[in-house]
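Re: export button greyed out
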Amino acid sequence: MAVISAAATVNPPDAVRPCRKAPNKMDDVYCIGHRRVARRSLISIPKATALGRRYAERIDRSSKILKDPVITEYVNRVEQNIAENSDAKIPVTVGVIQSPQINAMTLPGGFIFVNTGLLQAVNNEAELAAVLAHETGHVACRHAVANMTRRDLLQYATIPLLFIPMSYPVYLGITQGLNFAVPLAFLKYSRDEEHEADFLGVQYLWKAGYDPNAFLGVFSKIIQRERSAPGSVPSIFMDHPPTKARIISIEQEIKNLLPRRKDYLVSTSDFHRVQERLDNILNRENQVQLAANKNKPTLIRREPKTAKVNGPVQQPENDKPPILGKPPKSSS
Ligand SMILES: [Zn+2]
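Workaround output, generated via the alternate export path:
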């Protein structure tokens, strides 16, 4: 794994106060890290991690993963800062999938993936951190395995990952940008789970020192993108879209629960360098692809000639066009 250099942000002192005994600790941001937010699950942490790793390794091996160490190190550095300021009890890693769609997903065991489309769409580091904070909320709550039975676990662990199982029932989702399926249970969460990941994510974003309003910035981006180009945001992402209700509850949380700070981190020069680097990599790849397509010989297939005649059809001889036989004339 890449060496994590100094965190982009310093945890400001006003985010650290003693954890008071609040009736509902989920509301007490000073207790972040001491709270038990994980949902009950029959699947143990080591089993969930092994399952997530199986899918994550398959994704890592696919050609669709962005292999640039500078970009992945940066995204992981932003995530480490969020994870350290969260209730997640397991290490979290982030992979980057090369796909133009705005999307992110969380596998069991703390394996998060974000698309390059998302890295290009966000305006600043705080917005990227907001998406990662939401996904970290899913990790902390163990949503991916919350409703999983032991039978599901066995099934997901034995499904071959090397083909597109189009015939598999709906519990498998073909992951955008990858040609294989990831169980839908890891991609699609319930309305309540999305709400919970928002609720915790905003707190993690705040505690890590970022402007919590960045959450709303990402939401409005998704809404705008879907409005201007319907279908551009994957349906899995839009199943629980950033609705008005979600936006209002985040606004209220920022206003009522989060202590105000003098300064918030919005962006860093690293973010803009990474975004520029990503643009350059993707442009270069597009040019190589275009050149490869230009140099490819174009094969023109000759249309087979068919004619509705009653007589026998002669087989084509070498390259000559086929000669159609005529019905024999009567001799009289
Ligand atoms: Zn979510």
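The beta strands are 93-97, 104-107, 111-115, 172-174, 181-183. The button fix ships in the next patch.
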